[in-house]
């Protein structure tokens, strides 16, 4: 597709269907902004619909995101099939593509949640927590169904880089090293969370943030985050 056609492909993002990916990205951006996860244009959201990858752009205030701001990329060709004029693609794009290709994800969320940042300062190589009811909202990749209450949630932590796109190689390594993980924390930066569907990615992101916040409080009180059995 020519770059001119890619720019004008509005039909890909303009829909009256509230669960169209372009509309959902805008809804999630507003929700996550209210939670303080994507303030100051930080963070990013992407949804995959078969070959189409919908991506929130860089530099747009998340609470003011509009469907016409959304980029669309072909998964197969890795080329943009819709590129809004005057907007820049998100630097998170190669990281989202890693989650799509390595985990067959349906959506990927990146936030600058303070709970995520704090946990990367309190934990070393991995974030760990066990025996908390909320863990049951998360998937257990190694067998069907979700985790159990007493399971241990492990999220790898990778080191931050000066440019977001430079995180791609270490994110790919972490995804391979921790096949059960549905998220990767980035030191002093935030978190990437993915799921099989849009709704699952949203639920996992919320459940993980709850557990990150709880872990900070447990650490403050001197309570181990992993319960001895
Ligand atoms: Zn970021």
UniProtKB/TrEMBL annotation:
It is found in: Cytoplasm. Coiled coil: none annotated. Residues 23-216 form the Class II aldolase/adducin N-terminal domain. It is an enzyme of class 4 (lyase). GO terms for molecular function: methylthioribulose 1-phosphate dehydratase activity; zinc ion binding. The active site is at 133 (proton donor/acceptor). Binds 1 zinc ion per subunit. One of its GO terms (cellular component) is cytoplasm. Its cofactor is Zn(2+). Pathway: Amino-acid biosynthesis; L-methionine biosynthesis via salvage pathway; L-methionine from S-methyl-5-thio-alpha-D-ribose 1-phosphate: step 2/6. Pfam families: Aldolase_II. One of its GO terms (biological process) is L-methionine salvage from methylthioadenosine. Belongs to the aldolase class II family. MtnB subfamily. Catalyzes the dehydration of methylthioribulose-1-phosphate (MTRu-1-P) into 2,3-diketo-5-methylthiopentyl-1-phosphate (DK-MTP-1-P). This is Methylthioribulose-1-phosphate dehydratase. It comes from Pichia membranifaciens NRRL Y-2026.
